[in-house]
Amino acid sequence: MRDYIIVFGAAVRANGKPSLVLRRRINRAAAWARAHPDAMIMPTGGTGEHGPAEAAVMKQALVQAGIATRRIVPECEGRDTLESIRLCDRLLRERGDCARVVVRTSRYHQPRCALLFRLLGWTALAPKSGRSTGRLKDDRARSPRSPLRRYPSARPSAIQTRLTIASLQSSSL
Question: Could you give the CA distance from residue 10 to residue 44 in angstroms, rounded to a whole number?
Answer without folding.
Answer: 9
